[in-house]
Amino acid sequence: MENVGLFGGLIYMAIFILMIVSMWKIFEKAGKPGWAALIPIYNTIVLIEIVGKPLWWIVWLLLPGINIIFAIWITNLLSLSFGKSTLFTLGLLIPPFTFICYPILGLGDAKYEGPAGQ
């Protein structure tokens, strides 16, 4: 049983590192510093800049209930900013596919086409 916990922990750590590296690369492709992906709250501010929305949108993300709608909207705009479809947004949002779609944006050949929110 001990090995199962260790194995699960290693898988979790590998996925965690994959997601951080993917976000780092997404930020770099958009012309932002990759290290910004590591800083809580600041990474959200940078993400809002990447998708082309005003910084005061951070307020919407602090309001319970409304934050879910705006998080989905920002995710959709991220997808569109990289030339992907709204259907790709579902991949970014649905957990099993999240671990595939973010690396596609960051580590794949997806190109940043500019802010989709403008």
Q: Would you kindly provide a written description of the structure presented here, covering whatever features stand out?
A:
The model has no long low-confidence stretch (mean pLDDT 93). The chain is an all-alpha fold and 118 residues long. It has one domain. Helix 1 (2-29) crosses helix 6 and helix 2 crosses helix 4 (66-81). The protein has six helices and no strands.
- The count of DSSP E runs of length 2 or more, i.e. the number of strands, is 0
In terms of DSSP E residues, the strand content is under 5%
Mean pLDDT: 93
As a percent range, the share of helical residues equals: 55-70%
Low-pLDDT stretches: none
Whole-Å distance between the termini?
53 Å
Class per helix and strand makeup: mainly alpha
Largest sheet: none
- Compute the number of helices: 6
- H and E string: HHHHHH
Q: Topology of this structure?
A:
Elements (H helix, E strand, L loop, with lengths): L1 H28 L12 H10 L5 H4 L5 H16 L4 H8 L1 H13 L11
Helix pairs in contact: 1-6, 2-4, 4-5, 5-6
Key structural traits:
single chain, 118 residues, mainly alpha, 67% helix, 0% strand
Quick recap:
This protein is mostly helical and about 120 residues long. The protein contains six helices and no strands.
